[in-house]
Design brief:
Helices cover 7% and strands 36% of the residues. By secondary structure, the chain is mostly beta strands. The radius of gyration is 16 Å and the shape is globular.
């Protein structure tokens, strides 16, 4: 399933975790090892640029952290990131350079690339968000199926391929430059190709090709 491969979704130079991700074919394969990777890499970060603020939590000196934000371990917050009022980072998260994690946004087991914005009331769990992707207010990644069965990635719009991930928890993989409209729900196993747009109030599942607009499941159109 070419559309869902890391090499077609992400510019790996736009995250501190690029070398880690490069060893995998599909991005969800990286989810199990995020915590361990953070604990290994954190102590090697440049002390001129990063502070270890508590056990297994490293924050860039140039990052802005609201006093009301919760920073759970393990965690790396890269340079010039902004963690706003009442953000809830549960842990096992990498927040990229210049990224924004906003009011009441919750992160858990994620890689957030550089300059990503999750600024208003977002839940992002077991997910990877590519460079300059943006989730509109209230949009979330649903990371567990209602029947609790294992997540299958389905290419509903192109090859009709399916990949059994073996994962119970799997949110969404957003390629570089993806725009998700307000109050949308990305169902477990959603993969959105680079530079694609999701209409507000959408319910999305499957693999959305790059450079497309998702209006509804019957109307996924190529950008002009």
């Amino acid at each position: 399933m070419e559309n869902a491969k890391i090499v077609h979704l992400y510019d790996l130079s736009k995250t501190i975790a690029g070398q880690y991700l490069s060893q995998f074919t599909y991005p969800w394969e990286a989810l199990d090892g995020i915590s361990q990777w953070i604990r290994e890499v954190g102590p090697t970060l440049d002390p001129e640029k990063f502070d270890q603020v508590k056990e297994d939590v490293w924050v860039a000196k140039s990052a802005t952290i609201a006093p009301t934000a919760y920073l759970g371990a393990p965690l790396i917050i890269d340079e010039d990131a902004e963690i706003r009022h009442c953000a809830f980072i549960r842990g096992s998260a990498v927040v990229g350079k210049g990224a924004v994690v906003g009011n009441s946004t919750e992160l858990k087991n994620d890689i957030i690339f550089d300059h990503v914005q999750v600024p208003h009331y977002n839940y992002v769990g077991d997910s990877i968000l590519g460079h300059r992707s943006h989730m509109g207010a209230g949009s979330i990644t649903s990371n567990v199926k209602s029947d609790k069965t294992l997540v299958v990635v389905k290419d509903c719009y192109d090859t009709k391929e399916e990949i059994e991930t073996g994962r119970k928890k799997f949110g969404a993989m957003l390629g570089d430059g993806v725009e998700v409209g307000c109050n949308s729900v990305l169902n477990p196993g959603t993969v959105i190709g680079p530079d694609s747009n999701i209409y507000p109030l959408s319910r999305v599942r499957g693999v959305i090709p790059a450079h497309h607009i998702f209006k509804d499941p019957e109307h996924v159109v190529l950008k002009k």
